[in-house]
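Allow me, if you will, to draw on your knowledge of protein folds for a short while. Thank you for your consideration; the sequence and its tokens are set out here:
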Amino acid sequence: MTQQTASADHGAHPVRVHAADPGAVEADFYDIKDMLEPDDRKRLDTVRGWLLDHVRPVVNDQWAKAEFPHHLIEGLRDLDIAGIQFDGYGCAGRGALVAGMISMEIARVDPSFATFFGVHSGLGIATIMLCGSEEQKQRWIPELVQWKKIAAFALTEPDVGSGASQGLTTTARREGDTWILNGRKKWIGNATFADLIVVWAKDEADDQVKGFVVHKEADGFTPEKIEGKVSLRMVQNAEIGLDDVRVPEADRLQEAHSFRDTAQVLRTTRLGVSWNALGCAMGAYEAARQYALDREQFGKPIAAFQLVQDKLAQMLANITACQTLNVRAAQLQNEGRLTDQQASLAKMFSTTRTRETVSWARELLGGNGILLDHDVARFWADAEALYSYEGTREMNSLIVGRAATGISAFV
């Protein structure tokens, strides 16, 4: 990291410029990265450098074509970041704060790539770590950590989103040592190419939600790519058909007995989406700030105008508030004290402030704000998906409201 000091007039803050990309001014105004151990800061810089070298040059083209850059998966192996928050089975064991900042860094370059990573690491690996048996962890986690296999997570259905805790229509029926799955899932990231798909289904015998690991080659498993998205276009979402898919008892997640177990996964991944939203806001801010410095009107950079500086200051305030909120939530997660309502507050607040921030960034660029060439348009569009998935703003708000009042407003 290099520093380039701005004018000392009026106590100006130092302008931080990443060594690997001198044009990208950092949005870490309160230096949250300094909270990490030196080795973790170095790891974060390594991840940042890899993203700038490999993801950033291709992302706008891939986003426009709605294609995923599969050739980049191999490079992730050397970064040692899959399942980084966990201990054992090949995971680095660095905890929630490091994992969150890595998610932030990935989304800061591209939210689609961060979503791909989050589905694999935050949902796939996390589900097996939290809900799998010891044998299942040993069987699956090392290959997932090494990116030899890719994971997906199938909960949402075509007609069931927010009501998944009670309204799942995908069923599981046991016949001896085999389970028969039937139903449909929708919006399943990575599902067009994932090797292992965690499928949540309601057991016909006891009406409880259980988890199953379905292999992509299973008969009756048919993923179909969802076309026509205007957000997170690089993510390969699929609608999945499950027609008499047979899953051995050995592939049923042995510690997933009800939706309570599903919810413990969602608690951690909801915070992950909050970090992704933060990274999205940072990326939009940095692109808009650089544009304001480069774009000249009336004989000077538009960054010299009061209204532009006001927008940048408000964007930076949103980002800094989200950073401090997410840092504290990650500390609570590391201590095993993060509650559902705390994770919901982080996700609700971060995605709302991100939506506001990327809109200001798009506005600051004027007509150029709708062109992929300047990156802001991509962040602006991608923020819409972050705002909705892993619990809408309204649902997360009601979870927080229930905690605040002791009264559930759920229908």
Summary: The longest helix spans residues 259-294. Residues 1-24 have pLDDT under 50 and may be disordered.
